[in-house]
Structure formats: structure tokens, C-alpha cells
Specification:
The protein is of the alpha/beta class and 195 residues long. The protein is built from 5 helices and 7 strands; from the N terminus they run E-E-H-E-E-H-E-H-E-H-E-H.
């Protein structure tokens, strides 16, 4: 997929700071160490559009990126991660309020992409989040990340296992690798289906 334009727009620390919902939006969410920034960078074929870090929990705001691809314009939205970040309970609660406020009331939101590390089992956090999205009629897809970390036979087995774990709450599961670019076109096709 040819990305003609990809640029940082803004960040929001509160729901009241969100930019106007002018373009269709695709939100990316998942655990703090799942590789959201790396996948976003691979999707737009840029190395540092979304900042990557070895320290979980660096994304503490909602970040918006304007993208033009396949003759369409949209915004990719990087939401704060959950799970592993070493932050106070109050800060974690403020992230949750911000993320839920965005996901619940955003008229331009077309798809939520939940990232799941291929090497980890689906937890209650992911299942409950997918159910929460479904209750609010927010379409969702699960992007399995870091598939390059496993050998092909083990990878295929894990993909099957996770698809079974996700049966029901996820509309679709796409295996991806930000490192090698695997599954990126399939993820774009899934995104375009919802725009």
C-alpha cells in the first residue's frame, strides 16, 4: 500500500483537547510493550513517526497522525498502553478515563485495532476490552504482533491458538510483524473495509 503522506498532528491529555473529528479514525491500543509505535511506523513506512521506546508506558497521551494512503485520508490514533507501565494508580486511572472517553464518544472512529503479542496468551484485559468495544458498536480487529519472533511452525500453531482464544470478541485476527512487514497489507485491507 502506497502511503503518500504521514505526519504527526497533535496529542491530547484530556478528552476536551481532542482535535475535531474531521477524518475517519483508526485507533491502536494494547499493552504497553506490545509494539504499537513500531507497527504504526511500519504501516506508514516511516521510521520515527510514532516514537518507540524500550521502556513500557512511554505513550501517555493520545497521539494523532494524518495519513494519506490509497487515495484516502484518515487519522491513525495511538492510545496509551496498559498493563506493564510502571506508573502510579492515579496516572493509570487518568489514562483509562482518557482512553474510554475517546473510544466511547468519538463520532469519527471507524475501527479499533487491538494489538496482541503472538507469544502471550490473551488475558481478561483483552477479552473485556473487546467486549466493551462490541457493546458500544465499535468495530475491532486484533493485530497479532511480533510474529517474526517465532519459527514458522511454532508461529502457525500460536496463530491458531490465539484465534481460538479470540473467537467471538474479535471480528478478525491479522498476524503482523513490524520488523519484517508481514501482514501489513492485510491490515491495511482490513482498515479500508471499515472506512
Amino acid at each position: 500500500m502506497k502511503v503518500r503522506r504521514a505526519e504527526y498532528v497533535t496529542a491530547a491529555a484530556k478528552v476536551g483537547q481532542l482535535p475535531p473529528p474531521d477524518l475517519p479514525e483508526v485507533a491502536f491500543l494494547g499493552r504497553s510493550n506490545v509494539g504499537k509505535s513500531s507497527l504504526l511506523n511500519r504501516l506508514v513506512n516511516r521510521k520515527q513517526l510514532a516514537r518507540t521506546s524500550g521502556t513500557p508506558g512511554k505513550t501517555r497521551l493520545i497521539h494523532f497522525f494524518h495519513v494519506e494512503v490509497g487515495g484516502r485520508e484518515l487519522q491513525l490514533v495511538d492510545l496509551p498502553g496498559y498493563g506493564w507501565a510502571r506508573v502510579s494508580r492515579s496516572e493509570r486511572a487518568s489514562w483509562q478515563k482518557l482512553v474510554e472517553g475517546y473510544l466511547e464518544d468519538r463520532s469519527s472512529l471507524r475501527l479499533a485495532v487491538l494489538l496482541q503479542d503472538l507469544r502471550r496468551d490473551v488475558s481478561d484485559d483483552e477479552t473485556l476490552l473487546l467486549e466493551w468495544l462490541a457493546e458500544r458498536e465499535v468495530p475491532s480487529v486484533v493485530a497479532l504482533t511480533k510474529v517474526d519472533k517465532l519459527k514458522p511452525m511454532r508461529r502457525a500453531k500460536r496463530v491458531r491458538e490465539l484465534k481460538l482464544q479470540l473467537a467471538g470478541p474479535a471480528e478478525r485476527v491479522v498476524a503482523t510483524s513490524a520488523e519484517r512487514g508481514e501482514g501489513i497489507d492485510a491490515l491495511w485491507r482490513t482498515i479500508f473495509d471499515k472506512l
